[in-house]
Amino acid sequence: MRTSDFWRLMDDEFGPAYSRTLAATLTLADLGDRTPADALRAGLDPRRIWQAVCEMQEVPASRRLGRDVRPR
Question: Kindly report the CA angle at 33 between 28 and 37, in degrees rounded to 5?
């Protein structure tokens, strides 16, 4: 997963403004007590970070892959 995909998923699930706040303030034990933003800066895999956010925020499995995008 790319960092851009991580942010797209965060924005889709939490909204563009709250996703940035959440990434800067949510401390995740699974990531060594880092915030998602700190984990990205440390070079951790964005997929691992997204999964940790989903677990902590109880994002249903049905929404963990993001919104379905309809073809044009």
Answer: 70
Q: What is the pTM of this model?
A: 0.88
Which of 68, 71, 30 minimizes the C-alpha distance to 39?
A: 30
Residue ranges in the chain modelled with pLDDT below 70 = 68-72
Residues with Cβ within 8 Å of 63's Cβ and at least 6 positions away in sequence, in order, are 13
Q: How far apart are CA 72 and CA 61, in angstroms?
A: 26
| Extended strands (E) in the chain | none
Calculate the average pLDDT of the chain.
92
